[in-house]
Amino acid sequence: MVLGGSSHPSLNAVICDKLGIPLGNLFPYSRQNDIPYTPNKTGTLLSKAANCYSKPDFPYAFESKPQTPHPDNSPTAGFFNGTDALHKDITKMQLDESNSSPTSTQNARFASYGKQTPKRSDTMDSIKSDASTGQRNISSASMTNGTAHENDASTLSVLSKDTSFQPRPGYKQWVAQAGKLVADLITCAGADHVITMELHDPQYQGFFDIPVDNLYGRSTLKGFIQNSIPNYGQAVIVSPDAGGAKRASSIADGLGMPFALIHKERRPTKITDRQNSTMMLVGDVANRTCIVIDDLADTSNTVTRAAKLLKKEGAKMVYALITHGVLSGDAIEKINASHLDKVVVTNSVPQEEHQKRCPKLVVLDVGHLFAEAIRRVHHGESLSVLFQYD
Ligand SMILES: O=P(O)(O)OC[C@H]1O[C@H](OP(=O)(O)OP(=O)(O)O)[C@H](O)[C@@H]1O
What we know:
It is globular and about 80 Å long. Residues 1-24, 33-56, 58-83 and 102-159 have low confidence and may be disordered. The chain has 390 residues and is an alpha/beta fold. The chain has helices spanning 9-19, 47-53, 78-99, 105-116, 121-132, 138-142, 148-161, 177-188, 218-228, 245-255, 301-312, 331-337, 352-357, 367-379, and strands at residues 194-197, 212-215, 236-239, 259-264, 279-282, 289-297, 317-325, 342-346, 361-364. Strands 5-4-3-6-7-8-9 form a 7-stranded mixed β-sheet, sandwiched between helices. The protein is 40% helix and 13% strand. The longest helix is centred in the N-terminal third of the chain and has 22 residues, at 78-99. It starts with 8 loop residues before the first helix and ends in an 11-residue tail after the last helix. 1-O-pyrophosphono-5-O-phosphono-alpha-D-ribofuranose is lined by residues 31, 240-241, 243-244, 294-302. It comes from Lepraria finkii. Pfam families: Pribosyl_synth. Residues 95-155 are annotated as: Disordered.
């Protein structure tokens, strides 16, 4: 399945058709909402939506039924679900084995789990004590004696019984629950491998219990800078917020270009204060071309406000290079009216309609990256070559 891939419909369809795999979709759920899961909490992005959740006639609730996988209910949560299921299998096989002597290699293997587990209480204790101090030293503990599958058995035992998540009083979860839920749904639906592009945070690969290959759009964006921006060596790469600084600075380092950072503060006290959140520039952009790099533009507030600030600070031209051009709501109108001179996006999101309405929009194709990744996965080849330019 291709996720977050080229959304050029015909291209995706051709890739999937040729390889005999189903066509996937975007994974926009990895960006967390900007409020904790408390309906009456005043937040920023989704506050208005959150307030309407508390109205009695509103048809949806934050907590879905059945409940969203969550560390508090570990039997349904992704990783623990897997280990629980495996643990149950092992226990069942142990019971079977106690009724009849093992006749196959597999039965003999699982029988050894049962025999070894009691002897490993010292190792389990050490893991338990490590967990209580916030450190999991499972790998080193499990290598102290025994074979790999013996270690697996005791580790599974510990994970499913002893390390269930205990929230501290007052602890608020800041997790993209929708992202975890959708990852679990995809896995439950039968996917055994996921290919994504530029997850908002690479850590979101951990939402999945199956292998994930997260591709990057940076090589494509770098190619545009080198081939289409005149005198790009004199330009400045700008990150519009601290969260994207690593992404933008890696491009600046790779091309030997200077780097500037905009500090975006999104901590208003009231819903209506959101537009007043402040942006401050660190770096010199006067009389230079600025290239704003970001992973996504949704409302396009971030890039349009960045462009306004950069022009105010003396920038000659402002390009925005964005991997995922979601461009929802009135984003296109904002871009048209903004100080941005050009907005460059990839076709990880369909751009045909956006292009008709936005003369500043340039679209780069990333279909070949997905095609190569799929080909390599299909033939069991390494994917690392696809990341070497990042
Ligand atoms: O077009 P917009 O609606 O303004 O959204 C785009 C911004 O949102 C994301 O960052 P976010 O605000 O989530 O902060 P982070 O990078 O620190 O996670 C993303 O990295 C962009 O900067």
